[in-house]
Structure to design on (206 residues):
């Protein structure tokens, strides 16, 4: 999306991204966790944030519910608003990546086209699509917010998996099967994935 005015010019600072990366001793990533409501995205995202921080890696979680309390409080859940929700989050994640941080997002982000746009905004290699795979029956059984029950009663419109579709990733960087496994197993898989990606980035810049 281009600026609305021709008078807006990108300002280039004196600090190069590589300087921030060297100071923080890490390469930035955006770990884009996608999956059905109650698949375990937020739980895994905050657990991973804790594990990475304890290992000395500055990071931050952008959670779907949390951003709708502030940045995206003006957006609904129709297709157009959901698309704009993802676009804004991708732009925020990119800024955080430019600052050198590892960003962990937890959004249903049900549509492949929106996730592809997020990848283009954040950048190939930095954007890592992670499919938190939990089947609908498991998610309905968990239903921590009671949303599936409300959706089944028709009280929540355009609810993903019930009255609105979810398009699973076709070729994500990682699939975390989170229906029957324990959170610790899923967390360890995520943590090892992050370490691998950072090692790859370090090797390519050595």
């Amino acid at each position: 999306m281009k600026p609305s005015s021709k008078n807006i010019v990108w300002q280039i600072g004196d600090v190069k991204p590589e300087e921030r990366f060297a100071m923080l001793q890490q390469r930035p990533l955006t770990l884009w966790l996608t999956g059905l409501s109650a698949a375990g995205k937020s739980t895994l995202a905050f657990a991973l944030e804790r594990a990475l921080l304890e290992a000395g890696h500055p990071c931050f979680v952008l959670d779907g519910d949390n951003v709708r309390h502030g940045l995206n409080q003006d957006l609904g859940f129709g297709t157009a608003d959901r698309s704009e929700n993802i676009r804004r989050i991708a732009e925020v994640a990119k800024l955080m990546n430019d600052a050198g941080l590892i960003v962990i997002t937890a959004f249903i982000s049900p549509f492949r086209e929106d996730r592809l746009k997020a990848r283009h905004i954040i950048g190939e290699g930095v954007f890592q699509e992670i499919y938190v795979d939990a089947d609908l029956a498991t998610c309905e059984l968990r239903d921590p917010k009671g949303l599936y029950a409300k959706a089944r009663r028709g009280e929540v419109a355009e609810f993903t998996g019930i009255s609105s579709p979810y398009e699973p990733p076709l070729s994500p960087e990682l699939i975390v099967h989170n229906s029957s496994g324990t959170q610790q197993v899923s967390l360890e898989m995520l943590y090892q994935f992050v370490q691998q990606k950072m090692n790859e980035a370090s090797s390519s810049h050595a």
User: Anything to note?
Assistant: The domain at 35-204 is CATH 3.40.50.300 (Rossmann fold). The mean pLDDT is 91.
